Amino acid sequence: MALSQPSGAHEAAAVVPLHAWTPRALYIHIPFCTNKCYYCDFNSYVVAGQPVDAYLDALEREMEQTVRALPPETIRTVFVGGGTPTVLNPRQMTRFLDAVARYFPLAEDAEFTMEANPGTTDPAKLDAMREGGVNRISFGAQSFDDKLLAAIGRIHEAKDVVNSIANARQAGFTNLSIDLMFGLPNQTLAQLEDSLSRALELDLPHYSLYSLKVEENTLFHRLYERGELPLPDEDEEVAMYERLRERLGAAGYEHYEISNFAKPGFASRHNTVYWRNEPYYGLGAGAHGYAMGVRHINIKGVQPYIDAAASGLPRLETTPVTVREAMEDFMMVGLRLREGVRKADFAAQFGGADLDAVFGGVLNRLLEQGLIEASGTGEAAGYRLTERGVPLGNEVFGAFL
């Protein structure tokens, strides 16, 4: 699309359709779990008694309707999340992955991630995943302390994480990640140190680290409201985060995003699509998608989703995104990346708009506070969080609203 030189940043952005290219990333939601963890507010349901095959039927119908409405080109990343996608049995897994390949053309070097819980990936299921194109697994380990795992409602034990990683490697998977949580009830820095040591012994290419957030409609929220959830104080939580950063950095992992660490070449390509505010297909119950400047949320309940997919796209909400909102999103998610945001990327996404002209006041204030700094030169020029700004990231992101 050829553009004349804009006369003003806001005008330039306003005349250019947001994301005038079809998504190159695909998210699919499998909402079933073996159990509901005490902290979880995700759109997930205990699998026992659920119409799993009918859900897969509905998912295929949504795939068919999606590619008819917005035909894909080449998909470069796929992420199957949940829930726990690996609660599907091998037959269901094969059927599901065959449908993905049938409707969405994947690049030869596509990153294809599936979330898994330790203990849900037996050899037959891993073989079905490999044969279906999955080449990256993200395991929800959360901790290597069995008492803590029980206290947060996880049903696996630390040994299940080790065994699951071993099984995945034996099946041929090399791109593996685990999630760890900190700031858990009664968790100490020493417990976290031990969990991290055991995680590092696995020598994985990627680690994700998340602090506990007490969300509404969870058991933990009810306990918190009653004063019965003994959480570490803020200083302890900051100390945990800083210790995690220090040790992973010393072990050779790049801190490429606020919550994520990777060996060179193993950063999550799919999640980077989100952090760069780029478009993606979103399929499944409760899934979010973003394409052609429009965000959508699908109907959340399993049976309501199945019913809705029988007669059309199963949308709960569809919202056009204004240029200003997209610019704010670009800054909020982009500054999560340790490399920060680039002025050239901002201009490319918003029809030549000048980042400094649009957000100069906010940027200057954050620069004066020492929360962000200028980075790069030439085409790489932009802004990123400072070391001081990393633990205060939410304050920085909120400044752009």
Content of β-strand: 15-25%
Radius of gyration: 22 Å
- As residue ranges, the low-confidence spans are 1-16
Q: Major β-sheet, in short?
A: 9 strands, mixed
Strand tally is 17
Classification by helices and strands: alpha/beta
Mean pLDDT: 93
Strand line-up in the sheet with most strands: 9-10-8-7-6-5-4-1-11
Coarse morphology: globular
- Helix proportion: 25-40%
* Secondary structure tally, helices: 15
Distance between the termini: 29 Å
Summarize the structure in words.
The chain has helices at residues 9-14, 52-69, 90-103, 123-131, 146-151, 158-170, 189-201, 219-225, 234-250, 269-275, 302-309, 323-334, 343-349, 355-368, 393-398; strands spanning 25-30, 32-33, 45-46, 75-82, 106-116, 136-142, 175-182, 206-211, 254-257, 260-262, 281-283, 288-291, 294-298, 315-320, 341-342, 372-375, 382-385. Helix content is 39%, strand content 21%. By secondary structure, it is an alpha/beta fold. The longest helix is centred in the first third of the chain and has 18 residues, at 52-69. The protein has a nine-stranded mixed sheet, sandwiched between helices. A three-stranded antiparallel sheet has the order 12-13-14, with no helix packed on it. The model is unreliable at 1-16 (pLDDT under 50). The radius of gyration is 22 Å and the shape is globular. Strand 7, helix 7 and strand 8 (206-211) form a beta-alpha-beta unit.
